[in-house]
Amino acid sequence: MTGTRRAAGPARRLLLVAAVVVGATALLSSCTSAVGGPAATSEPRPHRSRAAAPRAPATGDGARQVPAVSLDPATLPTRPVEQALLAATLFDTEAGRRLLVVVDAATGEWVRPDVPEPVAQSVGVLPLLAPDGRSFVQTTWVTDHVEVEVVDLRTGSVRKVPVVLPDDCVVDSVAWAPDAQHLGVVTYCSTPNEYPTEPTGWVVVEEVAIGTGAFRLVEHVSDAVPVETYPSYSPDGKLFAYGIAHPSDSTDDDEVWASARVVGTRGGVDTHEWSMTHMVYGDPWRDAQTLLGWDENASVTGPDSHALLSVTGSKEQYGFDGATNLDGFVGGALVGEVPGLCPAALCTIDLDTHAVAPWLTLPDGVLPGSISPARALLGG
């Protein structure tokens, strides 16, 4: 499920899969409703190991860009925002709180949206900004289940997405479709956990209309569980990527843990899965044919921790020593933390030359969290 982090060694990978299966099965057994999602966490994400940067040109030429900036969240104005170029979570470590900030599409300024604080806090766990920059999608725990909700950026109003599932299924995570009218929904289903019978699980991916709840099946994967899910559509909407694991493939001597999986949203495209690989956070798509992933087979401190995944099935490792957290693509530019080479909190990484440049500079005690671009406005 979304929210796990890189494990150190095969044993921990296998334990993680087992924990996910047991935990998810227990949740399903306790739910009377079948709408659910990843548990929210108020903790900043941990720093990840060194990563590489691709040796390929960036995309998004001509798209609207977000220029480099130095900002202090304490001085940012708070005002209503109709449309945002991107949303970001910042962590104020001294105050111990999460801050939701956006770039106003009308002015290009960084501001704090004037929405109720509980809404800002819930959305800020993992901002998922719509491609048109006008709303967020979130999953919220309610008693014994999780509801999928769309939050209006301007008003902070919340409306439920009518996702209806059988009692043996629970929503794991969601992603915006390019039209901002549909969601890709990754669901985990399981047979009851009744001793002595071992439960079996499967993954279902559906595309759901936000307004009506009408849905169509994208795929059904037997003997599977969503792990490091972080789902996303390709920019053209023809492909859907997410993280998955196959517990029965794992043995004491096997290093199979998580895989990145890409499937066609309307058929007619070969499905590909890369074992021991999962997507980076943020927008992993360099273009409609290539996405960026973590490579679990590489040394977590080495120069080949990442790979470019082609939708034709190939996988190209590359090296860029010094990067730590990578936050995906913003308007075609790769954004990440490059301590020692770039003094800013977040820097852009040129995918051709490996040159780095400051992009977001923050005061001491403020850390960057998740970045979510409005694809339709920024391109990429």
UniProtKB/TrEMBL annotation:
The keyword Signal applies. Residues 1-34 form the signal peptide. It comes from the Bacteria. Residues 33-65 are annotated as: Disordered. The keyword Transmembrane does not apply. Keywords: Signal. InterPro entries: 6-blade_b-propeller_TolB-like. PROSITE patterns: PROKAR_LIPOPROTEIN. Coiled coil: none annotated. This is Lipoprotein LpqB beta-propeller domain-containing protein. It comes from Cellulomonas chitinilytica.
